[in-house]
Amino acid sequence: MALIRLGFGRQHLCLLRRRSFLLSKLIAVVFAVLLFCEFLIYYLVIFRCDWPEVKTPAHNSGQETLKAMFLADTHLLGEIRGHWLDKLRREWQMERAFQTALWLLQPEVVFILGDIFDEGKWSSPQAWADDVERFQKIFRHPHHVLLKVVAGNHDIGFHYHFVMVNSVALEGDGCNLCSEAEAEIIEISHKLNCSREEHHSSRCTDEQLLPASAPVLLQHFPLYRRSDANCSGDDAAPLEERDIPFKERYDALSREASQKLLWWLRPRLVLSGHTHSACEVLHGAGTMEISVPSFSWRNRNNPSFIMGMLTPTEYALAKCYLPYENTVLATYCVAVGFLAVLMLAHFKLLASPLLFGWNLLRKLKTT
Q1: Could you give the angle at the alpha carbon of 304 between the alpha carbons of 299 and 307, nearest 5°?
Q2: Which of 24, 60, 232, 251 has the most other CB atoms within 10 Å of its CB?
Q3: Is the dihedral of CA 232, 235, 238, 244 positive or negative?
């Protein structure tokens, strides 16, 4: 009887060890997959991004070079639209991507080109305050990094010869916000013209003079274009959507407002958002406009942002892609399959993975 009990005890102990070993393997696999998909993948992908080189190096021309990041259309969900799980997932993705980019790339300034929130026009004061608090958490940054946002409120100003325009206010219908925006743009245009003149007119004062440099125009709506038909690349609009005509004042600025901005400001570069897709458009006398894709996985499978090296006279841009959503989902699916195989093999419902693979290869060879 003692021998039977001893044998039963050893068998029970062996079973417990096998189960604990299985549990350890399952926990290790789950932890490794979560660590890769939710942390490491952002470092592995963004690490491959490099700052572009300006044609005329700043140290040779006496000009300072600015490292700037440009992203757009984060669309943080509020309390009305979207499932809470979708909201949690997208915000985690953007937070990890942004914080990883800050740590690896060390930009000096970050510009977000509008559509920060998805429900700003419906939010109550308390909901708006909560959304702002979440935005500040997701896009927190060191004190030495400047974060500038082209928001829905009146926001026109300068930073290193960037002109940020609230393009929502350029409807041209004479509203108070539109009139104020147009008046400020005209004032900025006057200052820029004074700085460009070799012999300043009597209308120019010393306080108005700025370093002679064509500005970079930053706004949410793109300048007028008929459609995305001429856009190309992995992150351009889907083929079936590229030929859809743009509606003025809805998909892009009106032709009139676009011509005014180009005439008044004479920018060397335009960066915009709104379309959620990438595009390069050449306007007027060779002014390049870059449409920055959405930074949110809710809008794209392959979000990205723009990295810019800028001097007062030159600029160079490069695109940094974020992890593909399909890659993350495929990794999780493979992990679930692997866990299922481990479980089946443990309960002897399936031969060991190595033996199963060997038998499968033999069958394939015989056929």
Answers
A1: 145
A2: 251
A3: negative
